Amino acid sequence: MRMTFGVSSSVTLLFDGWDVHSPAGMVLSVLLVLLLTLFYEVLKVWRVWLSGSRLAVRAPACTPPPSMHSESASMLESSPEISLAPVELHAPGATNSWLLRVIQTGLHVLQVVLGYMLMLCVMSYNTWIFLGVVLGSVLGYFLSFPLLDQMQPLRLV
């Protein structure tokens, strides 16, 4: 087995049935590895989104203490502060919490398996496959992580 990177168009990836011997097969294999890596990055964002749905949401506190003068109170009301105390908007039931945990566990297993498969692809020491994994990771991160800011928290009510 080869232990240095090469640029050959012939490689065996993951299984005996995935044996590449032509430039066209190498292009298809690189595209498939790129898509698997892109899916791996999207899966990471999905897991972060699901775990973020369990976090508490902070509510603004705009009421001044009753002992303040009216001038100070009106200044404080015009510039609201964020409370440091977390406030739960909804408390998911035990069934929903359990279901969310099962989904997160399944996604974690899928992410680990996919990560190891991609690692084994890179360990084929083929430069084209390696570049497919790197490019898929770059594209996946570039496309999926900005979506995390736009996603609404998951409601399990």
What does this structure look like?
The longest helix is centred in the first third of the chain and has 30 residues, at 23-52. Residues 55-64 and 79-90 have low confidence and may be disordered. A two-stranded antiparallel ribbon has the order 1-2. Strands 3-4 form a two-stranded antiparallel ribbon. Strand 1 and strand 2 (19-20) form a beta hairpin. The chain is elongated, with a radius of gyration of 25 Å. It is mainly alpha-helical and 157 residues long. Helix 1 packs antiparallel against helix 3. The chain has 2 domains: 1-54 and 92-157, no CATH class; 55-91, no CATH class. The chain contains 4 helices and 4 strands, in the order E-E-H-E-H-E-H-H.
What is this structure, in a nutshell?
By secondary structure, the chain is mainly alpha-helical. It has helices at 23-52, 70-78, 94-122, 127-150; strands at residues 11-12, 19-20, 57-61, 81-87.
What's the overall average pLDDT, rounded?
77
As residue ranges, the low-confidence spans are: 55-64, 79-90
Strand content: 5-15%
SS summary, helix count? 4
Question: N- to C-terminal separation?
Answer: 54 Å
Q: What is the spatial order of strands in the main beta sheet?
A: 1-2
Helix content: 55-70%
Class by alpha and beta content? mainly alpha
Oligomeric nature of the chains: single chain
